[in-house]
Amino acid sequence: MTGGIAARDVPALFQIDPKRLNRMLMTTGLWLDIGAATIRVHSDSSVFGAQLQAVYGSFPAIEHASWADVHVRIQPSKGFRRWLKPQALFHCDGLQTFDPFPAASPLPLFEWGCNWAIGRRLNDRLLLHAGAVERDGLALVLPAMPGSGKSTLTAALSQHGWRLLSDEFGAYDPVAGLFQAVLKPIALKNESIAVIRRFAPGAVIGPEFPKTRKGTVAHVAPTSDAVKRRHEPARPGAIILPRWQAGAVARLEPLPQSTVFPALAFNAFNYGLLGADGFRSAVRLVRECLAWQLVYGELKDALSVIESVWPRVLEHRSGRPQ
Amino acid sequence: MERYGRADGVLIEALGHLWAAFSPLSGETTLLNDESAAILEVLESGGSDTSGICAALAEDSGLDAKQFVAAVAGGWPRLLEAGLVYRLSDVAAAW
Q1: First and final C-alpha spacing in chain B
Q2: Cβ contact (<8 Å) for A283 and B15?
Q3: Which residues of A touch B (CB under 8 A)?
Q4: What is the mean pLDDT of chain B?
Q5: Chain centroid to CA A30: how far?
Q6: Contact criterion met (CB below 8 Å) for A40 and A72
Q7: Measured between alpha carbons, how far is B49 from B52 in angstroms, rounded to an integer?
Q8: Are A71 and A40 in contact (CB under 8 A)?
């Protein structure tokens, strides 16, 4: 865990020379401070540095820090293999935890590997499997249900006035009663990539990686504002269970607590591990947050209906009318 | 008639029209209906059996105890499986 690495006077990743970044990755390693956690990454890959710069460009390029929650290494395969079908390997704390990826695709491997590691490390927080964005100091949590379009909706919100906390982890600190950012690029798959390119032409989207196990993948970079504010927590505000449905008119339907609780708890990465603390945290969230099911066909309509109920969320959480 | 006790440390919270119960014994969380939650509430004051639970619920609600028998008798397997209650005879046998 990290309380945040002082990043004053540290250049952003996009500002440093690619050769220097590659040297850093090969020697001291790069510390990526993503808010609630810090990842130290080493790599011998010749292409990984440029891919990191594309989607972590606003993050500080920290060369030395005192603590990292996750230590990972991306390296090319060795032996004859590297001549026949070169691959990238992911090591976490010295162990190879995933099957290799093509050597040209280290970024998706890094992203999946780090999500896997973070989901197992940050056990002083309840890690909901959810997108999370912030506005007015309050978190809007979007639990990941199959077919929900969670990442697409999170990406759209993050490009339209909502601060991205995370696309993957609703990281709830039960002691502080606050959500923390686990700020990483948003992984889009297949048709969602073009959808977000159209919806948010200003979004910084990294290279496309075809033929991964999830199809074509590309990553949306967090905005520079989200990176700057990655240590700002957010109070629980609202929970929205999104469901994309072709052609549907966007609508929000209030959800009973008995539906929201399992959507949060039984979908969390570490609910079982946290025992009674996880139970109390999930109950507290369900009681504090307003909750809806969102059915939508078009992103702009989804954002409109969310905006339309946000004053109610503010009122609910402040205890006074807006 | 089989007697049951409530597992130590059980947490139970109302969530609208259902209840969420956590058992430290099993590590599981279970959603319960009112009848099962009522069984756990009665057991908080000590071990009991189906007729004892029904009598307590009847006293509390003013209804006939017979009305609760089917729901209470049918509730034990799920409560046992979730680690929320245990058979007192199992404890006695262990000693």
Answers
A1: 20
A2: yes
A3: 256-258, 261-262, 265-266, 271-272, 275-276, 279-280, 282-283, 286
A4: 94
A5: 19
A6: yes
A7: 5
A8: yes
- Could you report the per-residue pLDDT of A224-250, keeping only the tens digit for each? 999 999 999 999 999 999 999 999 999
Does B18 lie at the interface with A, CB-CB under 8 angstroms?
yes
Distance from CA of B33 to the nearest CA of A (A): 11
DSSP E strands, A144-298 = 163-166, 169-173, 178-180, 186-189, 209-212, 215-220, 235-244, 251-254, 290-296
- Decide if pLDDT at A111 tops 70: yes
- The H or E element spanning position A296 is strand A290-296
**Minimal CA separation from B25 to chain A, in Å:** 10
C-alpha distances (whole Å) from A157 to each of A65, A153, A154, A286, A300 are: 32, 6, 5, 22, 10
- pLDDT digits 0-9 by tens, A52-71: 999 999 999 999 999 999 99
Section A106-112 average pLDDT: 95
Token couple for A83: 């001549």
Q: Considering CB atoms only, which of B15, B24, B27 is closest to A261?
A: B15
Q: At residue A188, what is the residue type?
A: L
